[in-house]
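Hi, here's the filled form for the chain we discussed.

Project: internal
Contact: R.S.
Residues: 120
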Amino acid sequence: MLSPRISQLAIIGIATGIFSGLFGVGGGIVLVPLLVLWVGFDERRAAATSLLAIVIAASAGAAAQILYGNVDYLAALTVGIPAVGGVLIGTWLQHRIPVAVVQLLFSGLLVVVAVLVAFE
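And the returned structure, exactly as it came back:
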């Protein structure tokens, strides 16, 4: 029998995968909040865990979208390559500011995105 923690993580993984495939989001919008609120991870551990988990989920999603012919390779490379630098800068910053500030910034980002999507 699976432990409650493994079951929680598996459910979070399923939800993340569904949101990733449906909306192209998952790590920051679904995975990080659930790891913090439901499993009890701190913000840093949740973000780090999310980054690795999303590599796996995004690879599967990208492969499926390639089969459907939906990928713009030039756009993906143009966004993806600079994103590597951005994630390194973000990780560096995350370790230099207090966790409470990271939580407030993340919460603010989610609210702004929600408002923008709701009124588009």
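Let me know if anything looks off before we file it.
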